Amino acid sequence: MNIAPGKIGTIPFDQARLDGLMEEAGIDVLLATSKHDTQYLLGGYKFIFFAAMDAIGHSRYLPVVVYEKGGPDHAAYIGNRMEGAEHQNNPFWTPTLHAACWGTLDAANLAVEHVRKIGKADARIGIEPAFLPSDAYTLIRKTLPDAKLIDATDMLERMRAIKTEAELEKLRIASELITDSMLATIGWAREGTTKTEIIEQLRREETNRGAHFEYCLLTLGSSHNRAASPQAWKQGEVLSIDSGGNYHGYIGDLCRMGILGEPDAELEDLLAEVERVQQAAFSKVKAGILGGDMISFAEGVLKKSKVAPYTDFFAHGMGLITHEAPFLMTNHPVTYEGTYAAKPLEKNMVLSVETTMLHPTRGFIKLEDTLAVTDNGYVMFGDRGRGWNRGGA
């Protein structure tokens, strides 16, 4: 289904901000091809048929949003043939729709055709190299020989770094649903319940609450192994439950602790040390503070702690994906540069703050929290269950 150019719908992002970032990056036309950026540019839309897997036939699904700087009337969405029905029910804002593709090459051909039609065959075109299949890239490069292809990844990450109020609400709901699900799961689990059973229960809890389950990293007892297994929970043992799920694409990623029985004085003290580092980081979160200053302050508090030899502090940005701008630390643990360490935090950035202890005898003790930056500090999402939660309750 090819829809002839029509009226522009309500643009779901800050057009002036996107135009400014494109100008700064030297990009005239954007070809967004990642699921997260096409979803962002379409106001949260993601085609459910390919939500879990991209492959089909001999190729794969490749959505493309074409956006010309300063020219939303030239915008287009290129999608799968079945997405014409999605448009009939909830029209896309782009004035042009090509719901005509089954693979990468037909999507790339339509993108090239549209770029030519709007007179930008020799323009500076922004692409997402990590999310553009090699066959589609080769076709674009060959059929637009006069165009300059520019990596738009950083520009799009900067665009997504500042969340809208609607995005913040989705992140808040995601965090609340994940927290509720983790606490319910801890309370459900009994002595003898296995890791595999606990993970499956968490999946059900999240799904029943309207979240999309993505993963659960779980430890029991003194083990630091977070993979599913037949290991069973025993009386007096700790449990750490770290889950990532999403609500309408926006990530909830938190970690909470459980205990089967009552925590002894040592466990209370160990979790208090983790909490002290978390609070140190929180105290430096507000708009205008350098991201690196928040990191160094928390690391300094940790360095003075008796648990420092086996404890790690980490913070990262999050939103539609689990690690996105602001990037605050270099290669820790994910391979990217901490390019935002020397930049001030901005209002409506969202951070995941986590302190992880690998205690040699008491096990894996961790808190992970989600914060939205405000002018005067922060707002925490899912701010419950941050102490020892009793299993079998």
TrEMBL record:
Peptidase M24 domain: residues covered: 169-375
Any one Pfam family match given in the protein's UniProt record, by short name: Creatinase_N
Molecular function terms, GO-annotated: aminopeptidase activity
Creatinase N-terminal domain span: 16-162
Keyword Acyltransferase carried by entry: no
CDD domains according to UniProt: APP_MetAP
InterPro entries linked to this entry: Creatin/AminoP/Spt16_N, Creatinase/aminopeptidase-like, Creatinase_N, Pept_M24, Peptidase_M24B
Keyword vocabulary terms for this entry: Aminopeptidase, Hydrolase, Protease
Listed name of the protein: Aminopeptidase P family protein
Provenance organism: Mesorhizobium waimense
Upper lineage: Bacteria, Pseudomonadati, Pseudomonadota, Alphaproteobacteria, Hyphomicrobiales
